[in-house]
Amino acid sequence: MSENRYDLISKASLDARVSAKLLYVSTAKYGGDWNSVPHTHACAEMFFVVGGRGQFRIEDKLYPVEENDLIVVNPHVRHTETSIDSKSLEYIVLGIEGLELMVSEEESNPFAIINFKSSGSDIHFLLTNMLKELETKSPGYETVCQDLLDILVIRLMRGSDFSAKLIPSNVQVSKEGAAVHRYIESHFKENVTLDDLAEVAHLNKYHMTHLFTRDYGISPIKYLLSLRIKESCYLLRTTDHPLSQIARITGFSSPSYFSQSFRKAEGISPTDYRAKHHLSKQSRYFTE
Q1: Is the four-CA dihedral 138, 142, 117, 158 of positive or negative sign?
Q2: Phi/psi of residue 53, each to 5°?
Q3: CA separation for the pair 32, 22 (Å, rounded)
Q4: Which of 24, 40, 92, 267 is the most buried (most CB within 10 A)?
Q5: Is the sign of the CA dihedral 248, 250, 254, 259 positive or negative?
Q6: What is the mean pLDDT of residues 199-226?
Q7: Longest dimension (CA), the chain
Q8: Could you say which DSSP state residue 267 is in?
Q9: Are 37 and 79 in contact (CB under 8 A)?
Q10: Alpha carbon distances (Å) from 225 to 32, 216, 219, 251
């Protein structure tokens, strides 16, 4: 008689199960009609590209991404994503509390882009199963999603060309706060009210506001306004749209409220801001 026994509980296996918490899973498809504003999160984010091509802007540098790329962005790192060509960038994104990426070759690097050419279908399978669990909310769905996240983390470490590991971080963001944060980023151009945000968090608006402010150091309405101002700055620099149109695009209730809010945030009127940046462009043109 021969027998082989393999013990599963070891220090290494316990270390691998980091104290990470899945905050949200969502899908997105970006076309040419959307300009995503650079932003940060108090949690780590993982993006898996399921279709199209695009670019990630991470701390003011552009990185091309394509199908089967997995992008991990650490907490508090400015980033945004855009499509290129006619192929709309389509991806699944996870928000994860309690994780931070560490890369041995370049420990200061706050992100990683890994292509799973041969095993992209496996990663996609894990993520689509998370989405199914969250949609159906069958008994134990949160446990299943958490276990799928553990498997994904292990696949990330196995599939990396470099030595990468995910370690616990001190970031603590509430599930409700993260849901509101994500909703604001996706809907800031719309007529969003405190009641809308409270419904997203399944809390009353006073508790939701307190929770969000504690998590992010800013009230939800001020954060909403900051995104609208950032988007209007982009439109003032890159388009000739009249102020009334920019106000409407960015979700302001009127051109006068837009001008008032812009001056308060930037210390200059929208018209002067546009003129200043147009002059700056002309100056660079004549000196090059």
Answers
A1: negative
A2: -135, 155
A3: 30
A4: 92
A5: negative
A6: 93
A7: 87
A8: S
A9: no
A10: 23, 14, 10, 9
Cα–Cα dist 228/259, whole Å: 12
CA angle 231, 232, 235 (to 5 degrees): 90
Decide: 215 and 173 in contact? Cβ < 8 Å. yes
- Alpha-carbon torsion, ordered 172, 174, 175, 177, to 10 deg: -120
Please give the model's pTM, rounded to 2 decimal places. 0.65
Please report, as a single letter, which amino acid is at residue 6.
Y
Contacts of residue 78, Cβ cutoff 8 Å, sequence gap at least 6: 38, 39, 40, 58, 59, 60
175-187 and 205-216 helices, crossing angle to 10°? 90
Which phi and psi (to 5°) does residue 113 adopt? -125, 120
Instruction: Give the phi and the psi of residue 249 in degrees, each rounded to 5.
Output: -60, -40
Residue with tokens 């994780």: 99
Please report which residue ranges of the chain form alpha helices under DSSP H.
11-16, 120-136, 141-159, 175-187, 194-201, 205-216, 220-238, 243-249, 255-266, 270-287
Q: What is the pLDDT of residues 30-68, one digit of tens each?
A: 765 556 677 777 788 999 999 988 889 887 788 999 999
pLDDT tens sequence across 115-150: 887 777 889 999 999 999 999 999 999 999 999 998
